Amino acid sequence: MKIAIAGAGIGGLAAAILLRKSGAKVTLIDQFATPAPVGSGLVIQPVGQAVLGACGVADRVTATGNKVHRMLGHEARSGRRVLDVWYDRAHGTRTGLAVHRNAVFSALWDAALASGVDLRLGARVMRGEHGWLETADGTRMDGFDLIIDALGAKSPLSPLRARPLPYGALWANVAWPDDTALPVDQLRQTYRKANRMVGVLPIGTPPGADGPMAAIFWSLPRDGHDAWRAAGLTAWQDEATALWPEFAPFARQITDPNQLTMARYAHGTLEIPHGRGIAHIGDAAHRASPQLGQGANMALLDAYALARALDRHGPAQALDAYARARRWHVRAYQGMSWAFTPQYQSDSTWLPVLRDRVLFPLSMVPPVPRILSRLVCGTLLPAFPKGDPLR
Q: In which domain, by residue range, is 74 found?
């Protein structure tokens, strides 16, 4: 098969590697001329780690990342816990892998190059369907048996029209401070109601870094970035450290507002993640808040499911098989994201009360802790079909 993959992100690179393992001829197309480190920290959940293993890069990514055993959040004014989820409290064998996005990208990029993919860089894909793609400069590439759309949330190839979410977040990467008492095996967050959230994720030592680092984030209304800049950096540092004093050694490393990048989110899912000779994966197929930490994992699972479907069924039936394999897992996590996100990022006055006084106490009652562990691990529903070697 001759396959074109538009987009050399995590999902596109994983698809390229897995399809090359199956013997397909793969052309990988992206608008960057040369790869460069971008992005912040993310968590690769156990299901995503399994796909990285299938790509042959799990050990390399793990070596640069940081194992996370627990997600813990508290309410700023009362100090009460309002989020407490362990990956595997009894045994500690299942963990999240907190890592800089560039560490994952670099490992997948090198593996894709080693697999023999054909690269077309500096080409911005604008249109395409069965057999052909057209770039911004009018160049037409054709003769493909399948197009894979891995262009992300702004893909011009995807018919998905997602609903913008009212809140996004500012994020930055900073050094892990020597004078912090925060544990390095936990994602920590602090909230005030649902309209303020500050968090710290220890992401290990990314490629090129001098030592361990953290990804920090600050919840912000999607249209609030200009007002935040106008208020000044000192005002933000004062507010953040008043909300969570333990955040001070992280906040003082921000000396320029341009160190913080604004990320805006949307929610939506393609009912059918494919069209005439084209398959959509990752954010081109489904978008959600990162509240559950599943974005990169869903892209990896999409890439794996599509590669397996093509290997088992061939091009005629593969796209329907891919859609079936991913349907209920995607829907379950999209639904959970839709339900959870407003409790932590919204202007609601009653949702945080419900979260703190009702939902959190219930989350501590068995068997709910075990269900929440499966939720963050990515195994709330089976991520891989029966009989799959990664199951």
A: 2-163+266-377
